[in-house]
Amino acid sequence: MLKQLKYFQSVVRLNSFSKAAEENFISQSAVSQQIQTLERELGFRLLERKNRTFTLTPAGEYFYRKSLILTADFEQMCSEAAKIANGNRASLKIGYLRCYTGAEFNRALELFSEKHPNVEVSVIYGNHEELFSLLRTEEADLVFNDQRRTFSDEYVNLLLTTCRSCIELSAHSLPAQMKRISPSELKNIPCILVTSEAQRETEQEYYRDVIGFHGEFLYAENLEEARLMVIGRKGFLHVDGAGKSSAAGTSVTVLPLMRGEEPILRNYCAFWKKGNSGYYVEEFAELLKAQFENRNNITENRTTEND
Predict the structure, then answer these.
(1) I need a labelling partner for 196 at 20 to 30 A (CA). Which of 40, 54, 160, 223 fits?
(2) By the 8 A CB rule, do 161 and 288 touch?
(3) Distance CA 260, CA 34 (A)
(4) CB 179, CB 159: distance < 8 Å
């Protein structure tokens, strides 16, 4: 049936039996016969034929869309199995949001590596646009990223969590005495961005135009450097994730970031190309989602206890 699916997909994609025959190096009549055989096996018509033209039936349109995913999964499975059979290590390339502070990703990676010690996992750090570039060029199988745009049908868009945005600033600064803070109240304090040099302008534009930080911007290569700058009272850090690390001690205060009376929220997702959906990709995504669900459950329980 896989060969018949391939012929059917070629006919629909090229909108031509003759072009499909050329693409698959068989006769036009053979393509037609294979699709008719497929229809008989399925028990319903995929195409409505009229003279030299055809249209997809509603069932055929649905079957075509789903068949693309099925064959992509099959090809991915064969590729991974071939690597194992040939003695090559299976691999998983993951893109990670460089400014995220939560521990969920680390825990998911630990669980995955325990279960699949023979899978070579590589983690590539990047900002939002760098991670999507890795997906487009297939340099990453999956990326953990924040959502800054409308979801695309080209990707699987797995929503992991929605977080309240916060900032970290020196506990010895005057604004640290507040219970919450707005972007406009931070206009005289530099915003520290964790970003590569190539992404500085893009990140600055996002935090200025979308989040609303209109003061000076400073830059750090990693979270450790950024937190040292916060402790040194050089500026504040917009926090992605669960908040400050224990290493920051009492030198750093975390304040919720508000717009008026409403908290500023942010979505975090796992993204991967639909055509690159494979066993390891989906399993890691599920492990990652489970870690966020555990964190959310703990947070809810603590809130209930405090109430």
Answers:
(1) 160
(2) no
(3) 64
(4) no
Q: In whole angstroms, give the CA distance from residue 6 to residue 20.
A: 10
Rg of the chain, C-alpha, whole Å: 25
Compute the residue count for the chain: 307
Residue by residue, pLDDT tens for the chain (307 residues) are: 888 999 999 999 999 999 999 888 889 999 999 999 999 999 999 999 887 789 999 999 999 999 988 888 887 777 777 766 765 667 899 999 988 888 899 999 999 999 888 888 999 999 999 999 999 998 999 999 999 989 999 999 999 999 899 999 999 999 999 999 999 999 999 999 999 999 999 999 999 999 999 999 999 988 899 999 999 999 999 986 554 444 455 789 999 999 999 999 999 999 999 877 667 899 999 999 999 998 777 555 554 455 4
Q: What is d(CA 57, CA 63) in angstroms, rounded to the nearest whole number?
A: 10
Structure tokens, 51: 């003279």
Paired residues of 158 in beta bridges: 270
Rounded to whole angstroms, how far apart are CA atoms 94 and 274?
Answer: 15
- Max intra-chain CA distance, the chain: 81
Number of C-beta neighbours around residue 298 at 10 A? 10
pTM of the predicted model over 0.90? no
- Reduce the secondary structure of the chain to three states and give it as a string: CHHHHHHHHHHHHHCCHHHHHHHHCCCHHHHHHHHHHHHHHHCCCCEEEECCEEEECHHHHHHHHHHHHHHHHHHHHHHHHHHHHCCCCCEEEEEEECCECCCHHHHHHHHHHHHCCCCEEEEEEECHHHHHHHHHCCCCCEEEEECCCCCCCCEEEEEEEEEECEEEEECCCHHHHCCCECHHHHCCCCEEEECCHHHHHHHHHHHHHHHCCCCCEEEECCHHHHHHHHHCCCCEEEEECCCCCHHHHHHEEEEEEEECCEECEEEEEEEEEHHHCCHHHHHHHHHHHHHHHHHHHHHHHHHHHHC
